[in-house]
């Protein structure tokens, strides 16, 4: 049954006229709660970036003469203050305010007076939220990239500290060929290096300003979209307004799928670590701080952190799948389904950040168990090496293979380990640590450059140029 006004459980009151889309019609409290859903909570995460986007919009309105200079100055001063309050958590979105856009506009009217009623000229909540999410994602990706660059460095340092420490290589969960802790650890550093390269392309994909698309068909005003892009620090403009709305969900999915791909690398490390630290293998030792005890078995130290981190990797794949299902199958333009994209996106970024933070503490803390590793260095692991060595001396490889197999069956296989090295890149003798470290240094420099560019843009945003 329609109600007017509507009261929340906390006794707060809102009227239909307080909402940005209000047309004087009554509210149904239950329907209103259903449509608002988690937005007041979720929007608090992107509210600082909604404020940044609003400042860029105000700058454009003033530059094009669509807003008086004194009104723009008052709004920018209020936005700068509100930005600090949003970052500190002082600016709170009330349940009655529906979303961050309503909370922001009401705060601007309260702080800047009638000028606050001008801020929505030339934009829609559609391009407003797309812009806020785009700004948020650019910033989040750079922070995540720094976490991963640090983590890749930890893997590389672990490898450098254990260059000559033997580790059996496994296929089918059975001993296969000799490897080393260094070769094993560098696999994860190299994988993260590849993902950091992918991140640069993903960031460029997001480095396009959607503002000015409005509801998806542009604005019947002489706005300057290129100016908005410049003052907000975007290198390019997302030109087509229909594409702007169509891209909602597409870019978010690309980010979560990238995080899931990173998680796939870490998941293998965590699996190996859980296995190699068991009593049966005993190759690696976990620090006590990363284990917990059993409530019934006094001797147990369980690798709970490793297992939960491994579970987080699967969770990231699940969140990517959840977002994909919501975004898929919609026609062009905006649909309210898109509101539900924020929950898996924001949760995915948050959970990934927590995972990477813990991984940056875990990797440097793992220690090898030299005696157990040395005991696993058995002759059988060198069968393929010996067959290759004999073939290199002139024997057909298939004959060499059969000869070594016969010796193994007879129990008299005794390879000459001194001749069983490889000299190619990636082999135990040439792991390529220096090349990897040089590439990681370049990744860090790129990330730092983008972060500094964002900070310069933000610092210059709050003032109207003379």
From TrEMBL:
InterPro entries: Argininosuccinate_lyase (IPR009049), Fumarase/histidase_N (IPR024083), Fumarate_lyase_CS (IPR020557), Fumarate_lyase_fam (IPR000362), Fumarate_lyase_N (IPR022761), L-Aspartase-like (IPR008948). It is an enzyme of class 4 (lyase). Residues 50-318 form the Fumarate lyase N-terminal domain. Gene3D superfamilies: Fumarase/aspartase (C-terminal domain), Fumarase/aspartase (Central domain), Fumarase/aspartase (N-terminal domain). It comes from the Bacteria. Keywords: Amino-acid biosynthesis, Arginine biosynthesis, Lyase. Pathway: Amino-acid biosynthesis; L-arginine biosynthesis; L-arginine from L-ornithine and carbamoyl phosphate: step 3/3. It catalyses: 2-(N(omega)-L-arginino)succinate = fumarate + L-arginine. One of its GO terms (molecular function) is argininosuccinate lyase activity. Its EC number is 4.3.2.1. It holds the Pfam family Lyase_1. In the N-terminal section; belongs to the lyase 1 family. Argininosuccinate lyase subfamily. This is argininosuccinate lyase. It comes from Natronospira bacteriovora. The lineage of its organism: Bacteria, Pseudomonadati, Pseudomonadota, Gammaproteobacteria, Natronospirales.
């Amino acid at each position: 049954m329609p109600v007017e006004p509507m009261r929340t459980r906390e006794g707060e009151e809102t009227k239909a006229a307080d909402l940005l889309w209000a047309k004087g019609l009554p509210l149904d409290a239950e329907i209103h709660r259903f449509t608002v859903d988690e937005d007041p909570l979720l929007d608090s995460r992107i509210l600082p970036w909604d404020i940044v986007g609003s400042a860029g919009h105000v700058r454009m309105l003033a530059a094009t003469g669509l807003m008086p200079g004194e009104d723009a100055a008052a709004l920018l001063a209020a936005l700068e203050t509100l930005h600090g309050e949003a970052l500190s958590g002082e600016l709170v979105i009330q349940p009655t305010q529906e979303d961050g856009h309503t909370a922001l506009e009401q705060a601007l009217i309260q702080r800047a007076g009638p000028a606050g009623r001008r801020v929505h000229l030339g934009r829609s909540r559609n391009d407003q939220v797309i812009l806020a999410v785009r700004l948020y994602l650019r910033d989040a990706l750079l922070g995540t990239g720094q976490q991963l660059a640090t983590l890749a460095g930890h893997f590389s340092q672990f490898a450098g500290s254990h260059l000559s420490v033997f580790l059996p290589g496994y296929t089918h969960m059975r001993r296969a060929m000799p490897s080393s802790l260094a070769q094993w650890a560098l696999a994860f550093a190299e994988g993260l290096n590849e993902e950091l390269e992918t991140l640069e392309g993903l960031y460029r994909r997001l480095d396009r300003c959607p503002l000015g698309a409005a509801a998806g068909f542009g604005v019947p005003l002489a706005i300057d979209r290129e100016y908005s892009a410049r003052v907000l620090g975007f290198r390019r403009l997302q030109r087509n307004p229909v594409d702007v709305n169509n891209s909602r969900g597409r870019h978010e999915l690309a980010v979560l799928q990238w995080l899931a791909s990173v998680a796939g690398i870490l998941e293998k490390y965590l699996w190996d670590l859980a296995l190699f630290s068991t009593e049966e293998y005993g190759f690696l030792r976990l620090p006590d701080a990363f284990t917990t005890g059993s409530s019934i078995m006094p001797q147990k130290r369980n690798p709970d952190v490793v297992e939960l981190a491994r579970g987080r990797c699967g969770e990231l794949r699940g969140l990517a799948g959840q977002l994909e299902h919501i975004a898929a199958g919609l026609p062009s333009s905006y649909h309210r389904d898109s509101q539900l994209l924020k929950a898996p996106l924001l949760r995915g970024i948050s959970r990934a950040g927590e995972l990477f933070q813990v991984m940056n503490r875990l990797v440097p803390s793992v220690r090898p168990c030299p005696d157990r590793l040395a005991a696993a260095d058995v002759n059988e692991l060198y069968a393929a090496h010996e067959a290759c060595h004999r073939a290199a001396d002139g024997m057909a490889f298939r004959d060499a293979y059969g000869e070594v197999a016969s010796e193994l069956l007879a129990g008299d296989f005794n390879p000459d380990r001194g001749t069983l090295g490889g000299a190619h890149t990636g082999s135990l003798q040439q792991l390529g640590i220096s090349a990897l470290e040089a590439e990681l240094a370049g990744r860090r420099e790129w990330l730092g450059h983008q972060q500094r560019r964002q900070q310069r843009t933000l610092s210059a945003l709050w003032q109207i140029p003379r």
